[in-house]
Amino acid sequence: MRRSVCFDPGARAAVAAAALIADAFDVAPCGGDAPEDTVLLVGGNSGARAGPGSRIVALVDALPAGPWPEHWYTLMPAGAPRDVVARAVENAFAALDAARDIERLQHELGELNAIGIGLTADRDPDRVLDTILSKARAITCSDAGSLYLVEGLPDGTRGLRFVLTQNDTTPVPFRSTTLPLDHSSVAGHVALTGEPLNLPDAYAVPADARFRINPSYDQQSGYRTKSMLAVPMKTPKNEIIGVLQLINCKPSASLSLASAADVERLVQPFGPRFVQLASSLASQGAAALLNRRLYDDIRRLFEGFVQASVIAIEARDPTTAGHSFRVADLTMGLAQALDRVAQGPLAAARLERDALRELRYAALLHDFGKVAVREDVLGKAKKLRPEALERIRYRADLMKRELELRCANRKLQYLLDKGPRLYPEQATLLDAELAAAVAELDDCLARVLRMNEPTVVVENAEAQIEALAHRAFEDRWGARHPIITADEAEILRISRGSLTPHEYVEVRSHVVHTFHFLAQIPWTHELRRVPEIARDHHEKLDGSGYPRGVTGDAIPLQTRMMTIADIYDALTAFDRPYKPAVAPEIALDILEHERGAGRIDGDLLALFVRAKVYELTRRRVRSK
Predict the structure, then answer these.
(1) pTM exceeds 0.85
(2) Which one, of 505, 569, 506, lies nearest residue 537 by Cα?
(3) CB atoms < 10 A from the CB of 346, how many?
(4) pLDDT tens figures, 432-443
(5) Bridge partners of residue 197, in order along the sequence
(6) Strand 228-234 relative to strand 197-199: parallel, antiparallel, unpaired?
């Protein structure tokens, strides 16, 4: 194609030079500055200027000798021969083309860098796929495109899933399908060979090609697929994870192909530069998708560790099995309800996606520190430990045997001393004494068993414990043996629950252990507050909580939400042997009392009730 050369009609040297090269270039007179994509011939006195898309060649007399304008590309003496003028003009066009190539390459490099940064930063897989295809189409001026991903199938084979399509000319009703990973399709062929496939005309496929074009979409929509470029999406390890397919390369991305005639007239083959650009972008996209998959794999792996940790914790304390999962469900339900609040004091309290993940992990792991609490304390269902109660039973049995032996000795002694005549009457009296003593022992043991129940309120419990502590039986040698020891009596005096003060402190220490254990995990930046959120779930707004006794704003919003969920589940759980479950309505009343006392967040509690968050675990708790 002949290039355009303009000349200044007022400069005789420029006019003469233009005439010399008229056989090789399209020459025309031009007044003023140089137009785009031209070389302008001027004389030594010209004031014309060149824009970014043009160059000026000046023909000057020997005198005067400069200085010459810096925006001139080159200068030569007036009257220079044709070959010198032609070579100067050709060099000017070459410089112009080189400048454009550099500018285009800089733009494309900048685009690729920007795309790479965007793909790396975006964690939404759907947006990543959309970015890959839309940017590939933009940078290659493609009218349409599709994206396929290699996936494992249930039967153990691999297939190509059609995940995305875009078309500037014809709206496409998208329906995801899976293609066999073989050479029958363009995408399958490229995925297997690992090489780009560039078709100037998709309807003119070579007869020996292993792949075939499916014309069904064109037939149904009236679209005309002409030029096609399919490139493999290769990871840095050369693994092919997908195929990027581009259709109908246009002179400009902004052009519209309104008809089949437009396609035939405007669509051009994908040039080598576009093949290179598409391949580069496909590789960037593959790396981004691979990173996303690795990120998702790590998340699933960590999720599995969290789930396993919760199960392991609850295996040590079967009495609270399911508690951590229920608390997490209630807490996340409250967080979702919070996201729907449009007015009031909670309208501005929003938790972003990362904050929700942080809250969920904290809720699941809030009792992680129980691994440091002794199992016999965690699962303590009665005030006395089983071995302590067994010692009391054993003690009572020994006393019964002692009473029976003493009764038998007295009978024998009476028989030896008094003879058999009055023995039956005496034996009856001795048996009655034995029965009364055994009954008293059984009554003492029954009272111990009754007071050992943490859920039973015993009338005059203190007086009965005091009496039991002073009740003792003498053995045959005159030694006195108490029914219960002083330590056992102190344990039976527990008025609430089953734990001694020392055991209660040990159980409460689980939150400190939770913090220390979770703080050892190298959490990512967005999850860094999991340890403190989990640690503070027993804190109260009035400072009466533990372990730190902090108040008000020192307790994070996420922790306040978890506190409500934790209290509600603890009240309604049917699997706590040391206390009866209460009905949901009563549990809500108790929470309302806590709110009235200034211990929990009233706004969050109101939302918990209004949104009926408590119903999330109602059926599950009852089913237990």
Answers:
(1) no
(2) 569
(3) 18
(4) 999 998 998 898
(5) 230
(6) antiparallel
Q: What is the mean pLDDT of residues 167-183?
A: 86
For tokens 């979702």, name the residue. Answer: 336
pLDDT at 226: 94
Q: What does DSSP assign to residue 421? A: S
- Beta-bridge partner residues of 4: 26, 38
Least confident of 45-54, 324-333, 531-540: 45-54
Q: If 0-12 CB within 10 Å is exposed, 13-18 middle and 19+ buried, where does residue 205 land? A: middle
Q: Under a CB-based contact definition with an 8 Å cutoff, are residues 324 and 332 in contact?
A: no
- Give pLDDT tens digits for 197-244: 999 999 999 888 999 888 888 888 788 999 999 999 999 889 999 999
Quick check: 310 pLDDT over 50? yes
597 token code pair: 């006392």
**Complete DSSP assignment for 476-500:** TTS-EEESS-HHHHHHHT--SSS--
Separation in Å, CA 269 to CA 96, 140, 236, 250, 447: 25, 11, 28, 9, 97
E-assigned strands of 132-221?
142-152, 158-167, 177-180, 197-199
Angstrom distance (rounded) from CA 34 to CA 484: 113
452, 492 contact by CB (below 8 A): yes
Cis amide leading into 171 (omega within 30): no
| 26 neighbors 5 (Cβ within 8 angstroms) | yes
Collapsing DSSP to helix, strand or coil, 147 comes out as strand
Q: Which residues pair with 145 in a beta bridge?
A: 166, 246
Per residue in 489-499, pLDDT (tens digit) is 888 888 888 88
- If one compares 95 and 66, the residue with the highest pLDDT of the two is 95
The torsion angles phi and psi of 345, rounded to 5 degrees, stand at: -65, -20
